[in-house]
Write a structure and sequence with these properties.
2 domains; mainly alpha; Arc Repressor Mutant, subunit A; Rna Polymerase Sigma Factor, Chain: A
Amino acid sequence: MADVEDQQTEDLIRRAAKGDAVATEHLLARYRGRLRQMVVVRLDPRLAARLDPSDVVQEAFVEITRRLPEYLRTRPLAIYPWLRQITWEQLMHLHVRHLAKKRTPLREDSWPAALSDASAVQLAERVAAVQGSPSRQAIRKEVQERVRRALERLEPHHREILILRYLEQLSNQEIAAVLRIREGATRMRHLRALERLRELLGNEDGEVGP
């Protein structure tokens, strides 16, 4: 199915590059949901009452439409990481505007914004599943809470790879493009993040080393 979708995407890109407005519209529509999910995950809880994620994506699409012809000529990244990058920049600007704080550089692994409660719980659930949590509901809840506490203590670059993988559900190739590292380094960073998380879970009631 993924191969079919990739072929469809390439066809839309090819047609959009030739000026086909309908293909361009369909191409962007294909990724709207994923981009909105990224914004939902990243939106600072202090702004959630003021900014609707769909509005953030719509504003990003104005800039995306302006820059799309150049992208189609050069194709510096795969289409989704490129769309996400512009949406990320738009979200960053909105945070700066509303919270009056300068945030540089525009890098995910330096982004200090806290996850919303819903995103934190969702990440804990998904990572707990990977960790092999028991099946009974009461025990699942206990494990999820322990994972959530450990995630809060996890180093930012480790937490970030888990957010990209389990909340945004990016592929290794997409994560590599977002973080500007090699795909092999992405896999290694993911494994190290899980290992570090296991250490924190194992030492939750004691002192955790550096």
